[in-house]
């Protein structure tokens, strides 16, 4: 199947005109400009910015801005030099862009990509399982699949390389320059087509100056963290940057029966970047990276009694009941990428190629191993004197590999037309064995395994134009042709059957190690998408824009082990039409930065997770639960966002705040799915999953100067409304989540070193971040991390 995919891909690329296949620097490298990034953080190395697509009359296309080294300037790490290209890049983008700088990531203790959702308006992210399967959503657009084999409606890019599976972006973010979130359909100037947007994580690049930093921290639950980065010029044309991060700590969860700890950390990440300068206009950047995680997974709380294997009906926030099968995590992965950049008088060409792999072997435990002496089945029959074991565990055993190549050329034509042409290609594959150990009825244990291989091929050709109609008015027109193939070979089968009633031991008359369901098929899809819009400069530093765009996401498969045959099926591609108007303003020499937008999304065939019931046994009233992926024919999301930054308007005080409102509703009710009964049915105007109606965040930072030293006081607060994790599941509604953080930092004004103490989740809130109905029919929930107190020492050299 792989060879067939590649042949189709090569035939498609061969039909593209030669000029289209010229590569260019990934748009990810452009994402280092945000309100806070430009106003309150050190400027990163020159290699990270590509300004070749900015409008004429502001800066010559292809020119590389000269910026200072990443080391802090005299006066402290909060002082920066803001360049014209930085400010114009952020203001001129005709979409909402939220960026968190590397300095902010450190001060707010945002350790992995999902953490950024707390301080990015309209973004949600949560771990759906104990291991690696974070679910991202932007403005309610995403994929609610906890299994981890599917790409959501969000494109995640790590140093310009697309990460198709969640496992690729669960590792630590180390030595990061910025994280930029671009809202709305993307794929018109880089990468893969997405419906919801993209999140671009950019590392600090090598420079020709020797330097770096070392950091050590100690925090709650005996957690030690060590990290460093060292920049080394090797020759006049070769420079290298090595970054390292290690975390080791005890768990914050405690087993109610054994006293064992869970949720411990044992993480290692390392990355080496080498820049080869060919001449003044061209260079290569080699990225080699590795990460591994051998911590102990957290376990969700099963709200059943302790005697029946749960944590209790009103458990302590730290309490779990894991019993004799403790959760575990054993993950590792890495990869290599190569970026080539060439600057011409008329534009910039770049090519980025990457290959990544990831290996995962995790065990989730959803409740303890309780002993049940007898019981009553769902059909009313009694198991007298039988002793059974209650299971609700999952093993995730998979290997993923992904290859991608993006290349594009950005150029000016006749000084009024700014053109980007590019091509994208990726191939990814995941092979896995997902096993569910479950006990549906006393004395009848069912172990299910889905053994599968999934392959995805994506190719695309894109064009993006910006035409200067007048000195202040620009017309934007973009187009993309995408071709996707999805192949799946696998299905669920029994791996073991416990003692019990023969009538209950073989649903659908399946045999031991025999298939319950199986698919071996391939689907392909072609789609044209586009964007048109206007951008108007009201006054210098203030822009208004309006766009109409559409995006699509390829079809998916549900790879979880399931009893219901219909739960394993192909899910059709989804489509989104987006209308957005907004305004961006930078005033008082970038001391006041404001961004606001209103949007209206029309969703067709929204891929989502459904919870239904079915009858697995012939001639029986016994019902069983099953999750599956399906589509909502029509949905609509309307809302607005606003974010602002005040930098030093009041001397020594920085303020940043954001607010988002979402009204995400289902417009086509869903009464049933093939083979599953929805009870209750999904009604008209029901709320879409992962779409909190309100969310907001705020950060205040104040500097106190005395003699040669500086003390920085920081307070941060984030709040998100409750939301649904799956449709049709009454237990799948999360809590309202809030967290207050405080930090005090002390050090010389030169920024040579800093010492800090901090506390996160000061109120020690214990909201439910993800919840669902387990196989035993009880509510299972993950709880937000408790109050966390720590200190750290940071030294620049």
Automatic annotation (TrEMBL):
Stretches assigned to the TonB-dependent receptor-like beta-barrel domain: 295-762
Membrane topology: Multi-pass membrane protein
Cellular component annotations (GO), alphabetically ordered: cell outer membrane
Superkingdom: Bacteria
UniProt entry keywords in alphabetical sequence: Cell outer membrane, Ion transport, Iron, Iron transport, Membrane, Receptor, Signal, TonB box, Transmembrane, Transmembrane beta strand, Transport
Main location: membrane
Region (Disordered): 44-79, 295-334
SUPFAM superfamilies per UniProt: Porins
All residue ranges annotated as the TonB-dependent receptor plug domain in the record: 93-197
GO biological process, alphabetically ordered: iron ion transport
InterPro entries on file: Beta-barrel_TonB, Beta-barrel_TonB_sf, Plug_dom, TonB-dep_rcpt-like
Positions with biased composition (Basic residues): 56-70
Biased composition (Polar residues): 322-331
Cellular localisation: Cell outer membrane
Signal peptide (residue range): 1-39
Family of the protein in this entry: Belongs to the TonB-dependent receptor family.
Protein name, entry field: TonB-dependent receptor
């Amino acid at each position: 199947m792989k060879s067939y995919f590649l042949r189709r891909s090569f035939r498609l690329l061969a039909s593209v005109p030669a000029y289209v296949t010229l590569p260019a620097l990934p748009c990810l490298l452009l994402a280092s400009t945000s309100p806070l990034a430009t106003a309150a953080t050190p400027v990163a190395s020159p290699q990270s910015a590509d300004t070749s697509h900015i409008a004429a009359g502001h800066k010559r296309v292809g020119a590389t801005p000269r910026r200072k080294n990443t080391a802090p300037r005299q006066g402290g790490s909060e002082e920066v030099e803001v360049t014209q290209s930085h400010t114009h890049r952020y203001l001129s983008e005709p979409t909402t862009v939220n960026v968190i700088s590397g300095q902010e990531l450190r001060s707010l203790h945002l350790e992995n990509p999902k953490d950024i959702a707390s301080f990015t308006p309209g973004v949600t992210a949560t771990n759906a399982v104990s291991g690696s399967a974070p679910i991202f959503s932007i403005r309610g657009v995403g994929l609610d699949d906890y299994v981890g084999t599917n790409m959501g409606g969000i494109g995640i890019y790590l140093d310009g390389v697309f990460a198709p599976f969640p496992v690729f972006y669960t590792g630590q973010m180390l030595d990061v320059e910025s994280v930029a979130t671009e809202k709305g359909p993307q794929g018109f100037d880089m990468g893969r087509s997405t419906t919801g947007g993209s999140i671009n994580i950019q590392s600090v690049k090598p420079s020709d100056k020797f330097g770096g930093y070392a950091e050590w921290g100690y925090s709650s639950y005996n957690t030690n963290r060590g990290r460093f980065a060292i920049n080394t010029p090797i020759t006049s044309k070769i420079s290298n940057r090595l970054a390292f991060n290690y975390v080791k700590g005890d768990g914050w969860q405690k087993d109610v029966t054994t006293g064992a700890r869970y949720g411990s950390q044992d993480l290692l990440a390392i990355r080496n970047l080498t820049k080869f300068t060919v001449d003044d206009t061209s260079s290569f950047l080699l990225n080699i990276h590795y990460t591994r995680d051998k911590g102990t997974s957290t376990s969700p709380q099963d709200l059943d009694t302790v005697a029946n294997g749960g944590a209790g009906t009103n458990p302590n926030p730290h309490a779990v009941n894991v019993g004799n099968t403790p959760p575990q995590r054993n993950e590792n992965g890495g990869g290599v990428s190569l970026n080539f950049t060439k600057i011409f008088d008329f534009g910039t060409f770049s090519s980025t190629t990457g290959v990544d792999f990831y290996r995962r072997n995790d065990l989730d435990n959803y409740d303890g191993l309780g002993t049940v002496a007898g019981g009553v089945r769902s059909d009313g029959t009694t198991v007298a004197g039988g002793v059974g074991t209650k299971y609700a565990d999952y093993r995730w055993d998979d290997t993923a590999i992904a290859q991608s190549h993006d290349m594009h050329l950005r150029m000016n034509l006749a000084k009024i037309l700014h053109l980007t042409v590019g091509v994208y290609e990726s191939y990814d594959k995941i092979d896995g064995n997902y096993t569910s150990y479950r006990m549906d009825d006393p004395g009848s244990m069912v172990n299910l395994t889905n053994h599968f291989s999934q392959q995805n091929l994506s190719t695309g050709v894109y064009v993006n134009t910006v035409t200067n109609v007048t000195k202040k008015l620009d017309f934007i027109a973009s187009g993309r042709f995408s071709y996707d193939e999805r192949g799946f070979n696998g299905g669920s089968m029994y791996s073991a059957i416990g003692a019990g009633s023969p009538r209950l031991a073989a649903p659908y008359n399946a045999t031991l190690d025999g298939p319950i369901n199986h698919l071996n098929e391939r689907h392909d899809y072609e789609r044209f998408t586009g964007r048109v819009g206007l951008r108007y400069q009201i006054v210098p530093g203030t822009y208004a824009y309006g766009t109409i765009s559409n995006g699509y996401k390829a079809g998916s498969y549900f790879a979880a082990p399931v009893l219901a045959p219909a739960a394993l099926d192909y899910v059709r591609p989804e489509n989104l039409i987006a209308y957005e108007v907004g305004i961006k303003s930078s005033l008082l020499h970038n001391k006041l930065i404001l961004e606001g937008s209103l949007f209206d999304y029309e969703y067709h065939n929204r891929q989502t997770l459904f919870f239904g019931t079915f009858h697995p046994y012939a001639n029986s009233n016994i019902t069983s639960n099953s999750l599956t992926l399906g589509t909502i024919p029509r949905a609509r999301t309307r809302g607005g966002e606003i974010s602002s930054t005040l930098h030093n308007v009041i001397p020594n005080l920085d303020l940043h705040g954001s607010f988002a409102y979402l009204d995400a509703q289902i417009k086509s009710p869903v009464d049933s799915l093939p083979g599953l009964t929805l009870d209750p049915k999904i009604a008209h105007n029901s709320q879409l999953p992962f779409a909190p109606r309100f969310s907001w965040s705020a950060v205040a930072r104040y500097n106190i100067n005395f003699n040669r030293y500086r003390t920085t006081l920081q307070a941060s607060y984030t709040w998100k409304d409750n939301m649904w994790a799956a449709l049709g599941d009454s237990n799948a509604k999360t809590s309202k989540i809030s967290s207050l953080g405080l930090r005090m930092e002390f050090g010389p004004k030169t920024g040579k070193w800093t010492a800090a103490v901090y506390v996160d989740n000061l109120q020690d809130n214990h909201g439910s971040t993800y919840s669902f109905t387990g196989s035993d029919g009880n509510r299972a929930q993950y709880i937000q991390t408790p109050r966390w107190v720590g200190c750290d020492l940071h030294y620049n050299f």
